[in-house]
Amino acid sequence: MAVPYGRKSRSKSRMRRAANMKYSAMSYVSCSNCGAPKMPHYACGACGAYAGRVARPRIEE
Ligand SMILES: [Zn+2]
Question: Which residues surround ligand 1, an ion (CB under 5 A)?
């Protein structure tokens, strides 16, 4: 038989969720255009290259 629902405190809910959270190291790859470290699937922050072309050109001041 079902047990009456008892509301968990915010602390208890967060404790439960925290047990499933895993910290992982930030992954990065080196840019194929300039070699700077960049996040995978993101345009390079240094030169703006993505998938072999410059997707986000740097605007020089
Ligand atoms: Zn680059």
Answer: 31, 33-34, 36, 44, 46-47, 49
